[in-house]
Design goal:
This protein has 185 residues and is an all-alpha fold. 77% of the residues lie in helices and 0% in strands. Helix 2 packs across helix 3, helix 4 packs antiparallel against helix 5 and helix 4 runs parallel beside helix 7. The protein starts with a helix and ends with a helix.
Amino acid sequence: MAEHRSMQRAALLDAARSLLSEGGTEALTFPALAERTGLARSSVYEYFKSRAGVVEELCAVDFPVWAAEVEAGMARAATPEGKVEAYVREQLALVGDRRHRAVVAISASELDAGAREKIRAAHGGLVAMIVEALGEMGHGQPRLAAMLVQGVVDAAVRRIELGAAEEPDVIVDAAVGMVLRGVQG
């Protein structure tokens, strides 16, 4: 029975990823989840009490996987500059990934304070990954620089997702260039 519930929960999360990726937060409804998984709508409520609960669980499941991919890319780099570049490139490489698209589609205003805090903490952990590399590069304020680097990454994500006139590779290269030139001081 526990295995069946676990499989159903995983199917609901996968359906939620698809719905968020395809139509944003408006598409994530319990009737849509029920339809995608073949469950009765009342059954969906046995797994999640609200849309916020679905979103919170998606973040709890997907964000660590995403962060591990970024961390693995950084670990392959031999220099602090290489680590910072990998930090930017790995995040932007994940833009097309459904897990990432689902997390980006989530509107924090729809979540309760506890869920928003968990998401902020997860993002904080991601940003903390490059603080050491920035310090090794001699940056005087590595924590501040890390937050600003993440701002460049976030802007590049939005630009790519908007289907900007530039090719994604051009946006990625521009973001990497801005970050590396900006953190040299």
